Input
Amino acid sequence: MTTEFIDIGSNLTHESFDADRQAVLERALEAGVVHQVVTGADLASSRAAAALARAHPNRLSSTAGVHPHHAAAFDPSIRAEIRELLAAPEVVAAGECGLDYFRDLSPRAAQRAAFIAQLELAIEARKPAFLHQRDAHEDFVAILGDYAARLAGGVAHCFTGGRAELDAYLELGLFVGVTGWICDERRGGALREAAPWIPADRLLLETDAPYLLPRDLKPKPRSRRNEPAFLPQIAHAVAGLRGESLESLGRSTTENARRFFAL
Output
């Protein structure tokens, strides 16, 4: 029997999937990926993700939010539309939201304001937060510290940090999402060292497709596009680093995802 997995972060509305989205869904299912949470990164993709989830109710759910790259555009009308999306049953989390000081595509003050607004929306909707942080750890933790106790959970999406960041997130009650970053021996060292220390009941798996194609995938796809069918490759790497079987990891992470997102 194929081990079952849930991909908690796939960008299925991305244009790279426009030509073969149904085939991508079928390949994922064949690989044992029984459910996906489709990420909303701005208003348009949040709407599209919700529509996709409605069209595939047993296999897809979605998030609704504004990524920090787009925080400068966050205004009362967008806030109202995100609130409306979060009321839908297929929308299971607020976000992707957070801080990104690596690229600074929106002013940092705007990023912080949009982040706080979306944490408030998550609390109001009683749904967890799907969180992004890059090169902004101190501000991210400081803001979350004011809201974490009232959140219906939060997940550090695409976690790439080491033990210190991990400990700070666990202290805040966060779950931890691991991507194909862990398959990259060149830049995934800190994450590979931290992986065994993620509590089994806080670990979640994600591809972040079409980004972050696992570097150790064999044979390498002709396209550099990542897709949810490659989630077992990530699971294999995580299981190896944690010294557990693929089946055990599949069971625990699937159970965690169902509990976290109320699937």
Notes: Residues 41 and 67 are 5 Å apart (CA to CA).
